[in-house]
Amino acid sequence: MRIISGNYKGRRITAPKKLPVRPTTDMAKEALFNIINNRYYFEDISILDLFSGTGNISFEFASRGVKNIIAVDQHSGCAQFISKTSEELKFDISVIKSDVFKYLSKAHFKSDIIFADPPYNFNQEQFGKIPQLVFENSLLRENGMLIIEHSEQTDLSKMLYYSESRKYGGNVFSFFELENNLI
Length: 183
Prior knowledge:
CATH class of the domain at 43-123 and 136-176: Alpha Beta
Pfam family, one: Cons_hypoth95
GO biological process, one term: methylation
Largest sheet: 7 strands, mixed
Organism: Croceitalea vernalis
Mean pLDDT: 92
Structural class: alpha/beta
Number of helices: 5
CATH architecture of the domain at 43-123 and 136-176: 3-Layer(aba) Sandwich
Number of strands: 7
Keywords: Methyltransferase, Transferase
Radius of gyration: 15 Å
Protein name: RsmD family RNA methyltransferase
Helix content: 25-40%
CATH superfamily of the domain at 43-123 and 136-176: Vaccinia Virus protein VP39
């Protein structure tokens, strides 16, 4: 994987092969960040990266100047890799090793963007639990958005707070917000 923009543009990061991850492709990541870039100033926002895996999305935000990032993953190898890489790159990413659903149930940190990249084999109920917990617990700041990455076989359009989806290759990003006035 590589960082596609910002201070560390072009920097390759090699994650251990044993991690149970599926990093977001460069093409999909570039498209996603073009959308985000048109709506936010990176230096002014806070990010919650759920099911963070290799930290690919957190590293991209950090490279672009985001200073307030929390990465949550329950796999100890993933959490260790993100911590180690963040330290090497001098990124200020807080890493929390936790089950995402337990974390969301207890979290008080409000974010501008919450990005979730759960396993593609989640069922509708598991996917639905993410926006439910985010919005029930008021974890987004005003004008904030939740972005869930999933496969094209999954349809999240009937869920509460759904705004729209964008498809890039086999990746789909579904956007959720309090007001459906996204892009």
